[in-house]
UniProtKB/TrEMBL annotation, chain A:
InterPro entries: DNA_bd_Ku70/Ku80, Ku70, Ku70_bridge/pillars_dom_sf, KU70_core_dom, Ku_C, Ku_N, SAP_dom, SAP_dom_sf. This is ATP-dependent DNA helicase II subunit 1. It catalyses: ATP + H2O = ADP + phosphate + H(+). PANTHER family: KU AUTOANTIGEN DNA HELICASE, X-RAY REPAIR CROSS-COMPLEMENTING PROTEIN 6. It comes from Polyplosphaeria fusca. Keywords: ATP-binding, Chromosome, DNA damage, DNA recombination, DNA repair, DNA-binding, Helicase, Hydrolase, Nucleotide-binding, Nucleus, Telomere.
Automatic annotation (TrEMBL), chain B:
Pfam families: Ku, Ku_N, Ku_PK_bind. It comes from Polyplosphaeria fusca. It is found in: Chromosome, Telomere; Nucleus. SMART domains: Ku78 (SM00559). This is ATP-dependent DNA helicase II subunit 2. One of its GO terms (molecular function) is DNA helicase activity. The keyword Thylakoid does not apply.
Length: 649, 738
C-alpha cells in the first residue's frame, strides 16, 4: 500500500511508465560511516601462536580489514553509495584539511563514493603493520562518545545531506565509555540528534577475554530499535549482533565480517502489500529482493581532454523530429504505432488501461502440491516476502501458520499478484522457504515465503522438432546413473556461497589494479571450472563402461532403423568422446550466403573485397568456422582477415 | 517469421444483414463486423507488409469489379471495397463507412467468391507470372438468404482442388449468421426455406473444397480466447555438453547439443514518444497523416493534432576544472572508453579494451549433481531454456537420452557452467530432465552466484528468541494450535489440483499455465485494435473476462470452502491498524520513539520547554523544537528560523555545494509542517523561496536550486496531501511550471 504521506526523495519518484520492479529499490542511496575505536585494549595483539587458526589481528586491525573488504565489495555492489572511515580515540586529531573541531577523531576516509586512493590507503593500513602503528596510537584519554556522535552528525549533514539511508557502524569493545553521568546524558542527546537527523547507529560490539560487552550498561540508551526511514522493517534477530570473542575458534575478523556483511546493503522493502486469503481477510507483507544478478558497471565515457581524466555524464534532451525544437518532458505524448499511423490515448485513459486490473495485491487463488511446479515454469527471479504488523495486527502469526503448513505438506499457493500500481499483473506461485543455518550457526537462508512469477501461455515456446527417435535403454540409463551418483556436490545441494562470479571478480580485480596503478594479475581464480581431476578419478571407469554399452546400443538402434552409422573417429575403446564434432567443411558450391569457402574468401581478400561483403555474409563465414561474430563490421572484417592469415591465405 | 499471407473477406452487405435478430442488441452485420474487424486489426497490428487483405462486398447497391473480371453479366451487386494489399489505419477509416447494409437483397455469393478467387490469383503472382508461396485464405460471412446460381459450383470445387494439388491451397472459411450447428446443437426456429437450401449448398461446397464451415456465433466466441504468437525457435547456444576435460583425460563424455528458449516473456506493445507538431504550415511528414484517433477535448481530432516523433539528443558534460561547481560541455571526440571504480575514472585505451574481460571458451560443462528434492525452488533467476541434441545427430540423441533418463531415475539435477560464445561471461545453470510422452529434453535455468545473494537476516517464524537467548514458543506472533489447524483445513479445502473438469468430466488441474493469458499484453493490444475501429467512443471497454478469470478464486470453490474460511478468519483474528492519528496533537511526548532501553530522553533532559534551533544541528533541533510545542506561534517561529537557515545555505553556496543540505531541510520542513497540519506555513515559504530563487535574490543565479526542488516535488502542499490545505491539485501542479 502506497503511503501518500511519504515524501518523494530525489530520484525516488515513481516513474509512471515504469514496467515493474526494483527501480525504486535501486535508487535508495546509502552512506555508511565506519567509526572504529582506537584504544589500548582495541589495539592489543593476540598472543602469538603456531596454530594457523589462532587469532592474528587486534580488534582495531580486524575492524580496518573489515572496512577494507566492505569498501571493495561496495564498489562492486553499490557503486554509487558512500562510505567513510572515522577513527576515534586516536592521539592525532584531524577531520581533513587540518580541521581539529572534534578532539581525538581522525577521519581516515571522508564520507564519499570511494576512490582508488581511499582503497589504497585503507589497504596499506590494513596490511602494513608499520604504517598502521604510526597512525594507530591511542590518546591518553579515550575520545568522548558524544563528540564522535556529533562529528558523525556533521559528516552526514554536510557530505550526504539527502541520502535516504545513513548508517553509523560503530566498532568498539568499551561498553561504558564515559566516566560521569553527565557525559552519558550528553551522549544520549547526541544519539537522539542522529536519530532525528535520520541516521541509524549499528553497533558492532567486541568482547575481550574476561571482559564481556553488556549493551544495557550504555548503548541501549543510544541505539534505537527501528530505522526512521523504514520504521516497521523487521529488526534482525536481536541476538544476531554477535559479541565476537577474541581467541575463540572462529577468528574475530571472520565473525565481524559475517555480522557486517549481513548489513552490507541497507534493507528496504520493495513493496508493502496486503496478502489476501479471501474476502475480508488480509494480512500485511513486505517484499524484499534477496536474489539479484550483480553485474559490473557499464563502460562509461571518460574525458581525456583535460589534465585529469574525468567521467563525462551524458545529458539527454528531447527534440521534435521535424523541427529540431527542444521539447519539455511534459509535452511528450505516448502513442502506439498502428497501421502506418499512431493510436493515442489521453493520460487518463492510459492509466485506466493499465490499472483496470485493480489495486496492488497478492491474492491467493488456491493451493496445489509443489510437484505441480515444474522447473521450466520460471521466467524471472523470485521475491521474498515477510510479514509486517504495520497495517494488520496478527499478520505474523497467520503468515507463520501458512508457511509452516506449506512446508509440512509440500504445497504452494497460487496468487494473482500486482506488485504496484501500473505493474503488469502476474500469476505467481507462493512457495515456502525454510530457515537454514550454516556451520557457525548463522542464518544462511531466512524463513518466509517466496513469490515465483509463473509464465503465461503467451510466454511458452515450443520445443523444436526432433528428427530421429533414438531412445536410451534402461541399461544405458543405469550405467549413466552411476556416473551421476558418483559426482554429487557436497550435501547434494547447490550452495551459491561456493561460487563467486568469475567474470565479476576478474573485472574488478583488473580494474582495481589499474586504478591503483599496480601489476595486473595474470590468471583468474575461477571456481566455476569443473574439477576435472576429481571427475576423472571418480568416474573414468564408469565412463568407459558406459562408452562400451553405448557403442553396442548405438550400432543396434541405428542398424535397426537402417540409418548409416557414422564411423567414429576414435579407435581406442577407452576414448569415448562420443559424437566427435566434425567441423563443417565450408560448402564448395557457389552461391548461398553461408557457402563461401576459405579459398573464395582468400581470393576476395586479395582484391580487397572483404569489406565490400555485407554483415550477414561475414557473420555466416565466421560462424561456420566457430569464430566470434560480435562487433561492428570493421571488427568482422578484421577477424575474417585474421582467420585467413592463420590459414596462410 | 511467418510466411506471406493473403486474405480476402467476402462480406454479405444485403439489406437483410441490417436486421437485428434473435434478441441480439446489434444488427447481423454489426455482429459480423466484430469478427471482421478483429481479424483485420490483428493483421494490421503486426505491421507486416507481407500480410495483405482484400475486401469484397456482395449484395451491395453498386457494382465495382476493379477490372478483375471483364463481364458484368451475373456479377451485379458485387463491389470490391479494398484491393488486396497491406491494410493501414487509413484504409480502416475508409472501409468503415462502406460496410453498411445496402438497400437490396440481390447479388450472388458464388459470383463474389469467383471475384475473390480471381483477386487472390492475380494478387499473389510473382514478377514472371508464377504463383508464389502464399497462405491464401477466403473468409465468407453471409446470412445465407440470397439467391445463388449453382451451375458453376463444380468448376469452383475443381479449381480449389486443383490448386491444392499444386501446393497452392486456398483455405476457405464460411461463417453463417444463425446457421444450424450440429456440434452445439443450435437450430434456428422458423428458418427461411431459401436459407435452409442455401445452407446445405454452401456446406457441401465448403466441405468439398476442404474448407471450414461454421457459424458466426462460434467464431465470435472463439475471438475471446487470446491468440498466441508463434515464434520460430532460435538457438542461443550450439555446442557441446561435456563431462571432464577431453584434452587432458581419456575418459570423458561429449554430446553435441543446442539450446532454445523455453519461456520468454511476451511483452505488450510499447508506446513511442511523440510531440504535438507546432509547425502545421509545413508539409506533413509520413507520421502525421490523420491522427484522428483521439477522443476527448484536449486532443483535437483530425490533422490539427498531428504528432511528430521525438528524438533524443545527447551532450556530454564534465566538471569544469576552472570553475568549481560548474559543468561544461565537451566534444565527443575527446571522450574515450573507461570504467568507474568508485569515484575514480579508469581510462582504458581502445587497445586494452579486452583486459577486463575474462577469457572464456564456448562450452557447457558439467560441474556436479544435486538432489531434486532438496533443491530450493526459489533459486532459479531466469527464464527457462530447452537443451536438445544437435539436429539429425543420432549419436548425440542417444547419448543425451541416456543422460536425461539417468537424471530422471536418480532424482537429480545437474549443475553446469555455460559459456554461450567465446569471450562471454560464464553462467551457472541447472539442468533438469523433462520427459513428456515421446519428447525428451533438458530444461535449464540460471543459478545465482555468491554475489547475487543478499544476506539479510530475518527473525524465525516458528519461535521467538529473546534478547537473553531464550526460546519462546507461545507468543501473539506465533500461531496457536487452532490457527495451525484452521490454516491447514483452509489450504486443503482450497486445493486446485483436481478442481477443474476435463472433456470427459474427470477432475483435472485448475489454472494450468496453458490456460492463463498475459492480462496486460492482451489488454493493451485489444484496446489499440478497439480504438482503431472506435476512434470517437468516449468510454473504454473493460478488459476481456478471460483476462481476469484468475484474478480471484473460483466462486463455487470459495463457497464450498466457506466454513473453513470462516474458521480461519476467526482463529486468525487479524485487525486492521487504524489510520495514524495525524495532526499536531499526535506528537505527544510519550509517543516519541525511544531507544532500545525505553529511556525517556526528554525526561532525562529535564523536559525543556524550548529548544534553540542551531544552524549546525539544524534538522534535529528543528524536529525537537516542534516536538515540544503545539503552540501556533512557536511553530511559526521554528518554521521561520528553518526558512532563514535554508536561505542562508543557498546564499552561501559555492556553485551547488550547499544545495543538498538546503534541499534536505526543505524536505524536512515540508514533511513536518504537513504532519502538523500547517500546510499554509510551508506554502507561504515555498512561494517566497521560488520567487527569490528565480529572481536571483539569493546571491546570484540560483535557478539550479529551483530545478532541484521541482525535481524532488517539494512544491506546494495540496489538498490531497493535507486536508488543511486550500491549494488544489491543479494549482500545485501549475506551481512547478515556469
Amino acid at each position: 500500500m502506497a503511503d501518500p504521506t511519504r515524501d518523494n526523495r530525489p530520484g525516488e519518484e515513481d516513474e509512471e511508465e515504469e514496467e515493474l520492479d526494483e527501480t525504486s529499490y535501486k535508487t535508495i542511496k546509502d552512506a555508511v560511516l565506519f567509526a572504529i575505536d582506537v584504544s589500548t585494549t582495541m589495539l592489543e595483539q593476540p598472543p602469538k601462536s603456531e596454530d594457523k587458526k589462532a587469532e592474528r589481528d587486534s580488534p582495531t586491525s580486524a575492524a580496518l580489514k573489515c572496512a577494507y573488504q566492505l569498501m571493495q565489495q561496495r564498489i562492486i555492489s553499490n557503486p554509487h553509495d558512500m562510505m567513510g572511515i572515522l577513527l576515534f580515540g586516536t592521539e592525532k586529531t584531524d577531520l581533513g584539511d587540518g580541521d581539529t573541531t572534534f578532539q581525538n577523531c581522525y577521519l581516515l576516509a571522508d564520507l564519499n563514493v570511494p576512490s582508488a586512493s581511499d582503497v589504497k590507503r585503507l589497504r596499506d593500513l590494513a596490511e602494513d603493520e608499520e604504517e598502521a602503528a604510526k597512525l594507530l596510537r591511542p590518546a591518553d584519554e579515550p575520545a568522548s562518545i558524544a563528540t564522535v556522535l556529533f562529528c558523525a552528525n556533521q559528516i552526514f549533514t554536510t557530505k550526504a545531506p539527502n541520502f535516504s539511508s545513513r548508517r553509523l557502524f560503530l566498532v568498539t569493545d568499551n561498553d561504558y565509555p564515559v566516566k560521569v553521568k553527565q557525559d552519558k546524558d550528553t551522549a544520549i542527546t547526541r544519539a537522539r540528534d542522529l536519530y532525528d537527523l535520520g541516521c541509524i547507529i549499528d553497533l558492532f560490539p567486541i568482547s575481550r577475554p574476561g571482559h564481556g560487552f553488556d549493551r544495557t550498561r550504555f548503548y541501549d540508551d543510544l541505539v534505537y530499535p527501528s530505522s526512521p526511514s523504514d520504521p516497521d522493517a523487521p529488526v534482525a534477530i536481536p541476538t544476531a549482533t554477535k559479541i565476537a570473542k577474541s581467541g575463540d575458534g572462529i577468528s574475530l575478523l571472520k565473525q565481524l565480517l559475517s555480522s557486517i556483511n549481513s548489513k552490507a546493503t541497507p534493507r528496504r522493502a520493495l513493496f508493502s502489500l496486503p496478502l489476501e486469503f479471501g474476502a475480508g481477510m488480509q494480512i500485511g507483507v513486505k517484499g524484499y529482493i534477496l536474489i539479484k544478478r550483480q553485474t559490473h558497471v557499464k563502460n562509461c565515457n571518460v574525458w581525456v581532454g583535460g589534465e585529469k581524466v574525468q567521467i563525462a555524464t551524458a545529458v539527454t534532451s528531447h527534440m521534435a523530429d521535424d523541427t529540431a525544437r527542444v521539447v519539455e518532458k511534459g509535452e511528450v505524448r505516448k502513442a502506439y504505432k498502428f497501421g502506418g499511423d499512431t493510436i493515442t490515448f489521453t493520460p487518463e485513459e492510459l492509466a485506466q488501461i493499465r490499472q483496470c486490473f485493480g489495486e496492488p495485491v497478492i491474492r491467493i487463488i488456491g493451493f496445489k502440491p509443489m510437484s505441480l511446479l515444474p522447473l521450466w515454469a520460471n521466467i524471472n527471479k523470485a521475491t521474498f516476502i515477510y510479514p509486517s504488523e504495520s497495517d494488520f495486527v496478527g499478520s505474523t502469526r497467520v503468515f507463520s501458520a501458512l508457511q509452516q503448513k506449506l512446508l509440512q505438506h509440500k504445497k504452494m499457493g497460487l496468487a494473482w499478484f500486482i506488485a504496484r500500481r501500473n505493474a503488469a499483473p502476474v500469476i505467481a506461485a507462493i512457495i515456502p522457504g525454510q530457515e537454514k543455518y550454516d556451520d557457525n550457526g548463522d542464518q544462511s537462508m531466512p524463513p518466509g515465503l517466496w513469490i515465483v512469477p509463473l509464465p503465461f501461455a503467451d510466454d511458452m515456446r515450443q520445443l523444436p522438432e526432433q528428427l530421429g527417435h533414438l531412445k536410451a535403454t534402461d541399461e544405458l540409463a543405469d550405467s549413466m546413473r552411476l556416473i551421476v551418483e558418483q559426482l554429487q556436490l557436497p550435501k547434494a545441494e547447490y550452495d551459491p556461497a561456493k561460487y563467486p562470479n568469475p567474470d565479476l571478480q576478474w573485472f574488478y580485480k583488473i580494474l582495481q589494479a589499474m586504478a591503483l596503478e599496480e601489476e595486473v594479475p595474470e590468471k583468474p581464480d575461477d571456481k566455476t571450472v569443473p574439477k576435472y581431476r576429481q571427475i576423472n578419478k571418480r568416474v573414468a571407469g564408469n565412463l568407459q563402461e558406459f562408452g562400451e554399452l553405448f557403442e553396442a546400443e548405438y550400432q543396434r538402434q541405428s542398424g535397426e532403423r537402417g540409418a548409416t552409422a557414422k564411423k567414429r573417429a576414435a579407435e581406442n575403446d577407452a576414448d569415448i568422446k562420443l559424437p566427435k564434432r566434425v567441423k563443417k567443411e565450408p560448402a564448395s558450391q557457389a552461391g548461398g550466403t553461408d557457402g563461401m569457402t576459405d579459398e573464395e574468401m582468400g581470393k576476395l581478400a586479395e582484391k580487397g573485397g572483404v569489406s565490400k561483403l555485407n554483415i550477414p555474409v561475414l557473420k555466416g563465414f565466421l560462424k561456420d568456422r566457430g569464430e566470434n561474430t560480435s562487433g561492428k563490421k570493421m571488427d568482422l572484417v578484421d577477424r575474417v582477415q585474421q582467420y585467413l592469415e592463420s590459414k596462410g591465405l | 517469421m511467418a510466411g506471406k499471407e493473403a486474405t480476402v473477406f467476402v462480406l454479405d452487405l444485403a439489406r437483410s444483414m441490417g436486421e437485428t435478430r434473435h434478441a441480439r442488441s446489434q444488427s447481423n452485420l454489426d455482429w459480423a463486423l466484430e469478427y471482421v474487424w478483429d481479424k483485420i486489426t490483428t493483421t494490421v497490428a503486426t505491421g507486416r507488409k507481407t500480410a495483405s487483405i482484400g475486401v469484397i462486398g456482395f449484395r451491395t447497391n453498386d457494382t465495382e469489379l476493379a477490372d478483375l473480371i471483364p463481364e458484368v453479366e451475373g456479377y451485379g451487386h458485387i463491389q470490391v471495397l479494398s484491393p488486396l494489399k497491406q491494410i493501414l489505419l487509413s484504409d480502416i477509416r475508409s472501409l468503415q463507412p462502406q460496410l453498411r447494409p445496402s438497400s437490396t437483397n440481390s447479388g450472388d455469393l458464388l459470383s463474389a467468391l469467383a471475384v475473390a478467387i480471381t483477386m487472390l490469383d492475380k494478387g499473389t503472382l510473382g514478377v514472371r507470372g508464377n504463383k508464389l508461396k502464399y497462405d491464401r485464405r477466403i473468409i465468407i460471412i453471409t446470412d445465407g438468404t440470397g439467391r445463388m446460381d449453382t451451375k458453376d459450383l463444380d468448376d469452383i470445387v475443381k479449381k480449389f482442388n486443383q490448386d491444392e494439388k499444386e501446393g497452392h491451397k486456398t483455405e476457405i472459411t464460411l461463417l453463417g449468421v444463425d446457421f444450424d450447428d450440429p456440434e452445439t446443437g443450435h437450430k434456428e426456429e422458423d428458418k427461411d426455406p431459401v436459407k435452409e437450401v442455401n445452407e446445405a449448398i454452401l456446406k457441401d461446397l465448403v466441405e468439398r473444397c476442404n474448407g471450414n464451415f461454421g457459424t458466426l456465433a462460434v467464431a465470435i466466441k472463439q475471438l475471446s480466447i487470446p491468440r498466441l504468437k508463434e515464434t520460430r525457435p532460435i538457438a542461443g547456444y550450439k555446442g557441446t555438453l561435456t563431462l571432464g576435460d577431453s584434452d587432458k583425460f581419456e575418459s570423458t563424455l561429449t554430446i553435441d547439443v543446442e539450446r532454445y528458449p523455453c519461456t520468454m516473456i511476451a511483452k505488450p506493445p510499447t508506446a513511442s514518444s511523440f510531440v504535438v507538431r507546432t509547425d502545421l504550415s509545413s508539409t506533413a511528414g509520413p507520421s502525421t497523416q490523420s491522427s484522428g484517433t483521439m477522443a476527448g477535448d484536449d486532443y483535437p481530432i483530425g490533422p490539427d493534432g498531428a504528432l511528430s516523433a521525438v528524438r533524443n539528443q545527447r551532450v556530454y558534460q564534465v566538471d569544469n576544472p576552472d570553475e568549481p561547481g560548474a559543468k561544461m560541455n565537451v566534444e565527443p571526440d575527446d571522450l574515450e572508453r573507461g570504467f568507474e571504480y568508485g569515484r575514480t575514472a579508469v581510462h582504458i585505451s581502445e587497445s586494452d579494451a579486452n583486459i577486463v574481460m575474462l577469457e572464456t571458451n564456448a562450452g557447457l560443462e558439467l560441474i556436479g549433481f544435486v538432489k531434486e528434492e532438496t533443491f530450493d525452488r526459489f533459486l532459479p533467476m531466469s527464464r527457462a531454456n530447452f537443451i536438445v541434441a544437435q539436429k539429425a545427430n543420432t549419436q548425440s540423441q542417444l547419448a543425451l537420452s541416456s543422460f536425461i533418463h539417468a537424471l530422471y531415475e536418480a532424482g537429480c539435477y545437474a549443475v553446469a557452467r555455460l559459456v554461450t560464445k567465446e569471450g562471454k561471461p560464464p553462467l551457472l545453470i541447472l539442468l533438469a530432465p523433462r520427459i513428456e510422452g515421446d519428447q525428451e529434453c533438458l530444461i535449464d535455468v540460471e543459478l545465482p552466484f555468491e554475489e547475487d545473494m543478499r544476506r539479510y537476516k530475518f527473525p524465525p517464524l516458528d519461535k521467538k528468541l529473546t534478547v537473553s537467548g531464550k526460546t519462546i514458543t507461545e507468543h501473539r506472533d506465533l500461531p496457536n494450535k487452532d490457527l495451525m489447524q484452521a490454516m491447514s483445513d483452509y489450504v486443503d479445502a482450497m486445493d486446485l489440483s483436481g478442481y477443474d473438469r476435463d472433456e470427459d468430466g474427470e477432475p483435472t488441474e485448475y489454472m494450468k499455465i496453458e490456460d492463463t493469458f498475459s492480462p496486460l499484453l492482451h489488454r493493451i493490444s485489444n484496446i489499440i485494435r478497439w480504438r482503431a475501429t472506435n476512434p470517437t467512443a468516449s468510454e473504454l471497454p473493460p478488459p476481456a473476462a478471460i483476462l481476469t478469470k484468475y484474478s480471484a478464486p473460483p466462486a463455487d470453490l470459495q463457497e464450498q470452502s466457506g466454513p473453513q474460511f470462516a474458521a480461519l478468519k476467526k482463529a486468525a483474528d487479524v485487525k486492521r491498524v487504524p489510520p495514524k492519528e495525524k495532526g499536531r496533537f499526535k506528537r505527544r511526548r510519550q509517543d516519541r520513539e525511544k531507544p532500545l532501553s525505553g529511556l525517556d530522553v526528554d525526561a532525562l533532559l529535564g523536559n525543556p520547554k524550548r529548544v534553540k534551533i542551531e544552524a549546525s544541528n539544524l534538522i534535529p533541533t528543528f524536529k525537537q523544537a516542534l516536538a515540544l510545542t503545539d503552540d501556533l506561534d512557536a511553530i511559526q517561529a521554528a518554521a521561520d528560523e528553518m526558512a532563514g537557515n535554508i536561505k542562508e545555505l543557498i546564499k552561501s553556496s559555492v556553485g551547488e555545494s550547499g544545495y543538498g543540505r538546503a534541499l534536505e531541510a526543505v524536505r524536512v520542513l515540508r514533511e513536518e509542517l504537513t504532519e502538523m497540519e500547517e500546510p499554509e506555513m510551508y506554502n507561504k515559504f515555498i512561494r517566497e523561496l521560488k520567487s527569490e530563487l528565480l529572481g536571483s535574490k539569493l546571491n546570484g543565479d540560483r535557478r539550479e536550486m529551483w530545478w532541484k526542488i521541482r525535481g524532488s516535488k517539494y512544491g506546494l502542499i495540496d489538498r490531497k496531501r493535507s486536508f488543511a490545505s486550500d491549494v488544489t491539485e491543479e494549482e500545485a501542479a501549475d506551481f512547478y511550471k515556469g
